């Protein structure tokens, strides 16, 4: 069993994988955010586009998402605070020069027809 990339302490198969494979929909904003982190870690750009709110998709081209996902080594996710529609988190990663970085974001999500979508984020 390999632990999920999102640091939930669950197996990948029992955590984010069903969302990434389209077998299930993330039940909460936090679950969606965790699955999006796992998607970056596993280079699932199609999932990242599909889970971005339609109003924002033009701002996040698939090619840019894939480049960002593949040019970094995703180390760890830390969820700091979550509400019904927001998640504050830190994503730890190494860039292409193996330099350590922390992506600290306060993300906003919206649920439409029972499906959660990423809207935008404020970066620290």
UniProtKB/TrEMBL annotation:
Pfam families: YchJ_M-like (PF17775). Residues 28-121 form the YchJ-like middle NTF2-like domain. It comes from the Bacteria. SUPFAM superfamilies: NTF2-like. InterPro entries: NTF2-like_dom_sf, YchJ-like_M. Signal peptide: none annotated. This is Preprotein translocase SecA. It comes from Flavobacterium glycines. The lineage of its organism: Bacteria, Pseudomonadati, Bacteroidota, Flavobacteriia, Flavobacteriales.
């Amino acid at each position: 069993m390999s632990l999920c990339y999102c640091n939930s302490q669950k197996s990948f198969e029992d955590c984010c994988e069903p969302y990434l494979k389209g077998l299930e929909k993330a039940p909460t904003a936090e679950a969606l955010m965790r699955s999006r982190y796992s998607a970056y870690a596993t280079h699932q750009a199609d999932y990242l586009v599909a889970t971005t709110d339609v109003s924002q998709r033009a701002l996040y081209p698939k090619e840019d998402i894939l480049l960002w996902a593949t040019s970094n080594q995703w180390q760890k996710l830390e969820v700091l605070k979550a509400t019904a529609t927001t998640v504050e988190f830190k994503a730890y990663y190494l860039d292409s020069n193996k330099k350590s970085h922390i992506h600290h974001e306060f993300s906003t999500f919206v649920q439409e027809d029972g499906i959660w979508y990423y809207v935008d984020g404020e970066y620290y």
